[in-house]
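Input structure tokens:
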């Protein structure tokens, strides 16, 4: 319902030469018709390069990722990205689903760092045999994880936990759980 308000900002960013993405937050809470209408609305906008959808509450499963992707893809014919949260421990699985459907943008964070249960772990994405396509030397990243981020994760307590899991099952925002 707020997407139309983004148009002036999207236009300005594109005019400045940026690659522009529009992230649809809490996409799983929108019904298929709402997502298809959104897809139709923005399909003619030349100011967006990538349409991203987010599992903001960490509640999505395979069927949810498929439903949201297909609804957005109905009229939107450019790149689609997916941002996965790990409340249910399904971030990597959901990314695999999004890729199999055609998503060509995904993301993660080192050690899944992020609010609450966090995001998909970049190091797990690099190790996932379903996602490997490019050979890269991950030694530096793994050293960073073990030497620095493991301690930060323990200190700041991000990652999956019973409260975030229960919050996701009840479609609660991580702020409520906190």
């Amino acid at each position: 319902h707020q997407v139309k308000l983004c148009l002036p900002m999207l236009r300005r960013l594109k005019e400045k030469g940026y690659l522009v993405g529009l992230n649809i937050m809490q996409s799983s809470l929108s019904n298929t018709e709402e997502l298809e209408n959104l897809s139709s609305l923005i399909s003619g906008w030349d100011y967006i390069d990538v349409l991203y959808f987010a599992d903001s509450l960490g509640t999505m499963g395979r069927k949810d990722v498929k439903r949201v992707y297909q609804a957005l893809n109905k009229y939107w014919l450019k790149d689609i990205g997916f941002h996965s949260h790990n409340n249910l421990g399904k971030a990597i699985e959901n990314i695999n689903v999004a890729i199999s459907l055609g998503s060509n943008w995904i993301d993660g964070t080192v050690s899944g760092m992020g609010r609450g249960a966090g995001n998909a772990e970049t190091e797990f994405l690099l190790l996932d045999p379903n996602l490997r396509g490019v050979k890269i030397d991950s030694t530096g990243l793994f050293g960073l994880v073990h030497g620095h981020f493991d301690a930060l994760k323990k200190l700041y307590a991000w990652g999956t936990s019973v409260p975030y899991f229960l919050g996701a099952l009840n479609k609660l925002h991580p702020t409520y759980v906190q």
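The CA atoms of residues 111 and 146 lie 9 Å apart. The radius of gyration is 17 Å.
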